Amino acid sequence: MTTNWQERVSLKPYNTFGIDVLARYFAQAHDDDEVRQALAEAGARQLPVLVIGGGSNLLLTGDIDALVLHMASRGRRLLCDEGERVVVEAEAGEPWHPFVQWSLEQGLCGLENLSLIPGTVGAAPMQNVGAYGVEIKDVFAGLTALDRQTGELRDFSLEECDFGYRDSLFKREPGRWLILRVRFVLGRSLNAHLDYGPVRQRLAEQGVETVTAKAISAAICSIRREKLPDPAELGNAGSFFKNPVVTGALAERIRAQYPNVVAYPQADGQVKLAAGWLIEQAGWKGHREGDAGVHRLQSLVLVNYGQASGAQLHALAQRIQADILERFGVTLEMEPNLY
Ligand code: FAD
Ligand code: NAP
Q1: Are residue 88 and residue 183 in the same domain, yes or no?
Q2: 239, 285, 294, 297, best to mutate for ligand 2 pocket (most atoms within 8 Å of CB)
Q3: Which of 140, 172, 181, 298 is the most exposed place for a label (fewest CB within 10 A)?
């Protein structure tokens, strides 16, 4: 066995829900060679491999009978600097928020609205992470992934990733692509996105007169710290459900009964509903079953008060889904990856 493989390792420190399940084997990959070595060895032993980053988008419902490979590669660099347009690259294991902060320190704009999202650079393309009106697809320059079926490296362009709302080719082909490094195209001038939620208002409250990328980042960090539970204090995986996008006709039927429904018309005529509003309206906010619960301030976030199992959280999620379907005719889709 390779020296850095460990047997029967608790994954509690490796998932932000804090769920205590065991990995049959656990290893860290610090570079491409260690990734290849781990995959080869797992292949030789016919062991499945689960790749993880920060574990902030996982719901682990039982022990993992596999090699859990934790991406621990580091490195971030300017690849190409054309003055106004700068391409940066980071290794998959780089923690996301420090990478955003580093880009801001370089005087680069583009990632500020994505501040304080947990997790790693390598996982960000999986669901095209997004917040406050920006998704990584808006600043994406490319990525390099290992095809686990063929062992070959492949560079993906923006179009090839086929990003959607909290979605990508990589999410739709689970287990095939291991993302090694990601590139972003950033600018030196700010193209500010302030019209989402309370961002503009928070900047005003903070007395910001000249809006900079760093000021937007600071405003968003302060909003997020107020609204979202810190996984270090209360286990969670952020939004547990995607915001459902429904037909205009269904949105109108819901509005007829609930005139204050929170709804955002989309360019294609469909309507995005705030899942958090639906869940709150149905009375789930603050609901608790043992140690599994719905956060008392943010109904889109399921929380682990301590000893909840993944199965308990999943069962709670399923009850919420069934209730929302019955009340509103809306199907809620889970956002975290279930294992
Ligand atoms: P993990 O949870 O470790 O893995 C997620 C999935 O990606 C798994 O299927 C895993 O197998 C796969 N994976 C991980 N690394 C790789 C790799 N290198 N190659 C291939 N597959 C890989 N998300 C948003 O979009 N917007 C938000 O604003 C946001 N806010 C959040 C706030 C909180 C408090 C929390 C807890 C979560 C939030 N999230 C948000 C969800 C989560 O942080 C992101 O989805 C993040 O990108 C997950 O990264 P991770 O490294 O933790 O991935
Ligand atoms: P919020 O500001 O209370 O808004 C509620 C929902 O309405 C959001 O989910 C957002 O959808 C949508 N929304 C708000 N303003 C909008 C606009 N101008 N146009 C279109 N849609 C709008 O949301 P929040 O829960 O505090 O989260 C703030 C941002 O951080 C959101 O973008 C959210 O997605 C992101 N976030 C994501 C996670 C995660 O785990 N995925 C966790 C925390 C926060 P969208 O979600 O589609 O943006």
Answers
A1: yes
A2: 239
A3: 172
The strand order across the sheet containing 64-71 reads: 6-10, 22-29, 64-71, 49-52
Ligand 1 mutation target, pool 15, 21, 32, 52, most atoms within 8 A of CB: 52
Model's pTM, two decimal places?
Answer: 0.97
Q: Whose CA is nearest to atom 3 of ligand 2?
A: 197
Tell me the average pLDDT across 112-132. Answer: 98
Check: CB of residue 94 under 8 Å from CB of residue 186.
no
Taking each helix axis from N to C end, the angle separating 213-227 and 96-105, rounded to the nearest 10 degrees, works out to 150
Average pLDDT of the segment spanning 22-41 = 97
CA of residue 275 to ligand 2 center, whole Å: 10
Q: What is the pLDDT of residue 3?
A: 59
Q: What is the pLDDT of residues 263-278, one digit of tens each?
A: 999 999 999 999 999 9
What's the total number of domains in the chain?
A: 3
Task: Give the pLDDT confidence score for residue 4 in this predicted structure.
Answer: 85
166 is catalytic: yes
Q: How many residues does the chain have?
A: 339
Please give all residues whose beta carbon lies within 6 A of any atom in ligand 2, as ranges: 130-132, 195-197, 227-228, 238-239, 243, 264, 272, 274, 276, 300, 335
Q: Which atom of ligand 2 is nearest to the CA of 277?
A: 5
Task: For residue 329, give the amino acid letter.
Answer: G
Clarify whether residues 55 and 84 are in a common domain: no
Smallest CA-to-CA distance from 32 within 183, 170, 131, 146 is with 146
What is the distance of C-alpha 132 from the center of its chain?
13
In what order do the strands lie in the sheet containing 245-246? 245-246, 271-273, 263-265
Sorted by sequence, the CB contacts under 8 Å of residue 75 that are 6+ apart come out as 90, 91, 94, 181
Residue type, 244: P
* Alpha helix ranges (H) inside 138-192: 158-161, 169-172
Query: Could you tell me if residue 62 is inside a domain?
Result: yes
Same domain (yes/no): 136, 98: yes
